Amino acid sequence: MFVIKTLSYKEILYIKEMEFEEGKVTSLIGESGAGKSTLLKMLNGLLSPDKGSITYKGKELSELNFIQHRREAVMLAQQPVIFEGSVRDNLLIGRKFSEKPPVDDQMLTEALSFIKLDKDLDDDAEDLSGGEKQRLALARVYIMDPDCYLLDEPTSALDEGTEEEIVRRFLEKVKGKTVIMVTHSNEIAEKYSDQVITLHKLAKDHAHE
Ligand SMILES: Nc1ncnc2c1ncn2[C@@H]1O[C@H](COP(=O)(O)OP(=O)(O)OP(=O)(O)O)[C@@H](O)[C@H]1O
């Protein structure tokens, strides 16, 4: 789905070759500052490489319509964005961004249930805790139903046990879709991914293999 060749970006990333296959789950791991979020932003078209190429479904990413691309490859940022309004509003707004028709309350409630968010659709989203907001944002991107999910530490605010359960449930639900996920948990990466890629902080002239 994505193929990267001889990419470089500032002093942050150098990637000789990397591929993310369609329908597969890839985890990106590595020390803080290694460039995991930067790479995810590149795949989402939020940042452009200084050199090298990224293709998406065989087409050069830089030549694609970014609005359309971000609807197909949806990114969940490390700090989840919560909009003013209810839990329902926050779930449905993603569908609006994607220009997809809204879904009914039953589907919204199901989404809340599988990410274990025990809240009413009418509750004010601002009142949720940090970990609840993170799960709400994850449910929002799930409901958008894109081809590809780019997830930046989607469960970092949760305790270990809950984190693993949410990742497992999410991946079950989106089976067949492409998932590229940054995680700080080597255990989750090994257990739930088809491919694990470790990024290292760049010492000059060293490549990510
Ligand atoms: N806009 C920017 N301009 C310059 N440097 C940046 C920018 N954004 C991030 N960096 C730097 O790039 C490096 C990689 O950052 P990035 O957030 O991609 O790392 P990360 O692997 O996701 O780290 P973490 O696990 O801590 O989230 C860091 O040294 C960071 O300070």
From TrEMBL:
Q: Which intervals hold domain ABC transporter? A: 2-207
Alphabetic keyword roster: ATP-binding, Nucleotide-binding, Transport
Does the UniProt entry include the keyword Transport? yes
Give the signal peptide as a residue range, or say none if absent: none
Report which superkingdom the organism of origin falls in.
Answer: Bacteria
Instruction: List the molecular function annotations (GO) for this entry.
Output: ATP binding; ATP hydrolysis activity
**Protein's UniProt keywords contain DNA repair:** no
| CDD domains on file | ABCC_MRP_Like (cd03228)
**Which PANTHER family has this protein been placed in?**
ABC TRANSPORTER I FAMILY MEMBER 17 (PTHR43423)
Name of the protein this chain belongs to: ATP-binding cassette domain-containing protein
| Organism of origin | Metabacillus mangrovi
Q: What is the lineage of its organism?
A: Bacteria, Bacillati, Bacillota, Bacilli, Bacillales
